[in-house]
Amino acid sequence: MKALTERQLVFILAALSAITPLAIDMYLPAINAMSSSLNVPEPQVAISISIFFLGLAAGQLFGGPISDAYGRRPIVIIGLVLFCLGSIGIIFINDVRILWVLRFVQAFGGGFATVNVAAVVRDMFSGNESARIFSMIGSITVIAPLVAPALGFVIISLFEIWEAIFVVLAAYSFFALFFYIRYFKTQNIVEKRKVTPIKNYIEVLTTPKPMIIMTALVISSSGLYALLASASIVYMSYFGLSKFMFVVCFFMNISVMIITSKINAKIVRRFSPLKLLRFGIKMQVLIAVALMILHESGGIFIIAPLIALFTGMLGFIFGNAISIILEYFPKISASANALLGVLQYSVGAAAGLLVSLFDDGTLFPLIFIITLSSCIGAAILLVGTKRAKDL
Fold this sequence. Notes:
Growth Hormone, Chain: A; single chain; 391 residues; mainly alpha; 2 domains; 0% strand; 16 helices; 82% helix
């Protein structure tokens, strides 16, 4: 078999990464139809979103250490099979409690599959090259949460049944499985070891230098999760935009992130991942401060571009930070990535909850959380890596 080209590798790993955001967002337009079909209030169907995040975290926490012990290939395959079976099962449900169970199964499988994406990159690349590949994967993956709700809406409009969304998700996971099995013929990890999740996570948590990067990344990116949780309120309720213009603004955010990810992928061979990470997080602070100063007087034509620039800086932050972190854990990279994912989801969810709790009908709670998280993340990164020479 011919070796994978770089483009094929990036495409397949990006497809794996996209499976969970598609599963989260594609069925959002169907919640109303699902509640009617299952004869339950909408909030009971919406509980499945939280259950999905729980299953995703569990899949990553368990899948990471098992992958480090037995290799990436079997864990990705098991994860995609579970995701596909969970999706198929949801098509035939008639009870919301079964939906909850199957969404957990679906998410658990998704966690098994996606936790290995970064680990596969770490197995095959290191240093600046891994940062470049992460940026390329990220520039594709960020499209998924943008198109997912619109895709779900189109599917419901075409087929007029909510079950069609889960047929599409099952088909997507099946084809992802097919291409993965076809192109990833061999194991990335050949040395089999005992599954030691607690030992692995303790090793990650007690390694100071990568934990500085991980902590800075988790805190600084929590502003993005707060923004995602409040996006519809900001654009549609506060600024009074139509659904179409909301999509346009959201697309602008994703577009800037794609552009910065591509720029990062091109220049990371000339500049170290740490330098680009520092640049991205410094710029994020400056943009957040500008938002804080202008959030009352600035209209949509000022605030929307600033928010797009803020989210766009993550193109310099995510890939570089992950590549630095995983460089320290060549034998347990999936465990390190699992811990990072769980921390990001947890802190991000907390940031979104804080914005909701302190909502006063203005932009201040959101902008305050964005500014605070950016400043704290930057302080941890810049102070913690001030004298670092081996990051």
